TrEMBL record:
Lineage, top ranks: Bacteria, Pseudomonadati, Pseudomonadota, Alphaproteobacteria, Hyphomicrobiales
Transmembrane segments: 21-42, 48-69, 148-169, 175-197, 209-228
Protein name: VIT1/CCC1 family predicted Fe2+/Mn2+ transporter
Localization terms from the record: Endomembrane system
Membrane topology, from the record: Multi-pass membrane protein
Length: 231
């Protein structure tokens, strides 16, 4: 018999990976778009740089606040469901044991065995058993607002630094194409890293991230150019 070993599954990364990829992606796209929009309006390098820095700070705070609020709402819902389930377990444990058994029966377990499994699991930790198998709440999927907020803010800042660095190193006469091309390269790299971390293929995620980033930057640059001429 082979020795038992602890397995590490990619699904355990869902919580932080989603927030990290979203933060970095938004950091690159929003900051690069701001830079291109302002630069297309014939602004000076110092104005472009100031706009990018302001976008970095505002975006990081917005991402952190947004993630914290949204994930906290999920956490509040989970806690409310758990509190309700705890009351039901206290009021009618027999019904709850049968309810859990029927969940296993629906998954293909023989009725007698399902009732025995339900009985044993509830004897050890009834609330955890119902949280996992009735409510779908587990250690992997549970909401973590602070973790999501910090990950989003940090990765947004990292992503936003990339187009800002391009502004600093690019000659003024090629600033717009340099920022656009460099940002698309960073986005493609981010898509590949996210795909690799999540165990997916590299091509589709990379193309997807680069395509939508290009659309956002092109639209913002176009608006900047039009407004710059009018004003």
């Amino acid at each position: 018999m082979s020795r038992l070993h602890k397995e590490t599954h990619l699904v355990a990364r869902i919580g932080w990976l989603r927030a990290a990829v979203l933060g970095a992606n938004d950091g690159i796209i929003s900051t690069a778009s701001l830079i291109l929009g302002v630069a297309s309006a014939a602004a000076s390098r110092s104005d472009v740089l100031l706009t990018g820095i302001a976008g970095l700070v505002a975006g990081a705070m917005s991402m952190a606040a947004g993630e914290y609020v949204s994930v906290s709402s999920q956490s509040d819902t989970e806690h409310a469901d758990l509190a309700r389930e705890n009351r039901e377990l206290a009021d009618d444990p027999v019904f709850e044991r049968e309810e859990l058994a029927q969940i296993y029966v629906a998954r293909g377990v023989e009725a007698g065995l399902a009732r025995e499994v339900s009985k044993q699991l509830m004897a050890k930790d009834a609330l955890s058993a119902h949280a996992r198998d009735e409510l779908g709440i587990s250690e992997i999927s549970t909401a973590r607002p602070v973790q999501a907020a910090l990950a989003s803010a940090a990765t947004f800042s990292v992503g936003a630094v990339a187009p800002l660095a391009l502004v600093l190193v690019s000659p003024s006469n090629v600033l717009i194409p340099a920022v656009a091309a460099g940002s698309l390269l960073f986005l493609s790299l981010l898509g590949a890293i996210g795909a690799k971390a999540g165990g997916a293929g590299l091509l589709k995620p990379t193309i997807r991230v680069a395509f939508w980033g290009a659309c956002a930057m092109a639209l913002t640059a176009g608006i900047g150019a039009v407004v710059g001429k009018v004003v």
